[in-house]
Design brief:
Elements (H helix, E strand, L loop, with lengths): L1 H18 L2 E3 L10 E5 L6 H7 L5 E6 L7 H13 L2 E4 L5 H15 L3 E4 L11 E2 L4 H9 L3 E7 L1 H4 L13 E4 L15 H19 L3 E2 L3 H7 L4
Parallel strand pairs: 1-8, 2-5, 2-7, 3-4, 3-5, 6-9
Antiparallel strand pairs: 7-8
């Protein structure tokens, strides 16, 4: 109930009035049943605009740091993250990565929509980067379609390092669902997982026409000198 009140009564109307978000291909999202929405990632605001513009409830797996802040700002962030359907996960690797995958599978097991950023982190420069294979593993284990999503101009209104968004119009393009049923039962094969992941990234690149670089976004960030 809290999710829907925030979406349709409290946050949603204000955000729509200010940023006038647009959407193309909304009907490509399944009307029922579990599916993964795989999106490029330009801004922290991606996790706000996408759930706002689709009819069904969806959840994102978000790093736990967003839920542990102190004071009024920390409280406001927690409320906002929960209102936008985000679930806290530990992204430190190892067992934490396995727990994150299991959390995603639980969402899909309920027949819900799960939002995933296959790049693993926000793009440091607006380009599209190599996808992580956790998305493919979830799709094959849960046996669900993957719907490619391209966010447009969210990085312009709220780039990395900015806490208050600029006023501007943003949008999203939803592509046709990708069916990987031919690979069911092969989720332990790392070559299959890489192949599925690369197919998803190709679909995103074609849909959004972003420049693609076959390295991980986190690697690019690590190479950059501190600001």
């Amino acid at each position: 109930m809290f999710y829907w009140i925030m979406k349709y009564v409290v946050i949603g109307p204000i955000v729509k009035a200010i940023f006038r978000p647009w959407i193309v291909g909304r009907t490509n999202i399944p009307a029922s049943g579990a599916a993964i929405l795989a999106s490029n990632h330009l801004s922290v605001s991606d996790s706000v605009f996408l759930p706002l513009m689709i009819d069904r409830r969806m959840s994102f797996l978000a790093k736990s740091d967003y839920f542990t802040g102190k004071g009024i700002k920390g409280w406001a962030t927690r409320v906002f993250m929960k209102a936008s359907g985000q679930i806290a996960i530990d992204r430190t690797g190892g067992k934490a990565s396995e727990d994150s995958l299991n959390t995603g599978l639980q969402v899909l097991g309920r027949g819900d929509l799960l939002g995933v950023y296959p790049e693993g982190t926000r793009s440091p420069d607006g380009q599209l980067y190599r996808g992580r294979t956790g998305l493919a593993r979830m799709a094959l284990e849960a046996r669900v379609p993957v719907v490619p999503v391209v966010m447009v101009d969210t990085g312009a209104i709220m780039p990395i390092g900015r806490s208050i968004p600029r006023i501007g119009r943003v949008g999203m393009v939803i592509g046709a669902p990708l069916d990987f049923s031919r690979f069911h039962g092969m989720e332990s094969d790392r070559y299959i997982l890489r192949s599925v992941t690369d197919e998803i990234m190709v679909a995103l690149q074609r849909l959004g026409e972003q420049r693609y670089d076959d390295v991980y976004a986190s690697t690019v960030k690590d190479r950059r000198p501190p600001e």
